[in-house]
Design brief:
Mean pLDDT: 86
Helix content: over 70%
Shape: flat
Structural class: mainly alpha
Low-confidence stretches: none
Oligomer: single chain
Number of strands: 0
Order of helices and strands: HHHHHHHHHHHHHHH
Distance between the termini: 56 Å
């Protein structure tokens, strides 16, 4: 039993290190000092009282990744509510089971009494994940006039879908909407790459320089979270010269 708990704890720490892009040396500490290394990692990188329940859930998900899905399915069978079905759809989306997520989101949307902007956004994300760009466009048309759409990730996905379908001017307009300082770092990096592909090198360079400057003022957690993005920004700036 202790052996399996150790493996689960180690697995969770390795996943957390990868997920939040923490320093590579943590992989060695966790691998070569399974118990002590994992405890040190959790204390220094993860743990506070409010996170205790999340840590437990994370360890369980390493042992059995589908447990959350089964629990939510049982909850929906017991009480078929709007929120229970949304929670199940979200869980499917989290594990990249996009088809099941789409099925449940579409069923949720049959309830027209709800404010379904959140569900539409998640449905659009699932369609984008399976490269069904025409469905992305179709469902965005249903919500793009709502105030929440402006400067949202859903608008960003809309722009990406338009780019895939060759509508470059509309794509740029929607991608530029999320160019907001001190936010949307990964999305703005994608925008910079889009601009480079469109031969708008100076615009891309200015955007990359902004992100690089902002990265100097990030908190330590954000620097860890966006480490890969920052590295890519610095590399692109070097390549542009």
């Amino acid at each position: 039993m202790i052996f399996y708990l150790t493996i689960a704890l180690q697995g969770f720490c390795l996943y957390h290190t990868y997920r939040y892009r923490n320093s590579y040396y943590w992989f060695f500490i966790i691998l070569f000092l399974p118990v002590l290394g994992s405890i040190i990692y959790i204390i220094t990188q993860v743990y506070n009282k409010r996170d205790a329940e999340k840590i437990q859930e994370g360890i369980i998900s390493v042992i059995n990744p589908t447990k959350r899905i089964r629990d939510l399915e049982h909850r929906l069978q017991f009480s078929e509510t709007y929120q229970n079905r949304v929670n199940l759809a979200d869980a499917y989306l989290d594990i990249q089971d996009n088809q099941n997520a789409i099925t449940h989101y579409l069923e949720v949307l049959e309830d027209i009494s709800q404010n379904n902007f959140y569900v539409y956004g998640k449905l659009i994300e699932a369609f984008y994940n399976i490269q069904d760009y025409k469905s992305v466009i179709a469902y965005v048309e249903k919500i793009k006039n709502q105030p929440e759409f402006s400067k949202s990730r859903t608008q960003f996905l809309y722009g990406l879908a338009q780019n895939e379908l060759g509508n470059y001017e509309a794509a740029e307009a929607n991608l530029r909407a999320i160019d907001i300082r001190y936010s949307f770092y990964e999305e703005r990096l994608t925008l910079a790459k889009f601009l480079l592909n469109r031969q708008k090198t100076q615009d891309a360079k200015l955007l990359l320089e902004e992100i690089h400057t902002e990265s100097q003022n990030m908190t330590k957690p954000n620097k860890r979270l966006f480490r890969d993005t920052i590295v890519q920004v610095e590399k692109l700036l070097q390549d542009i010269g």
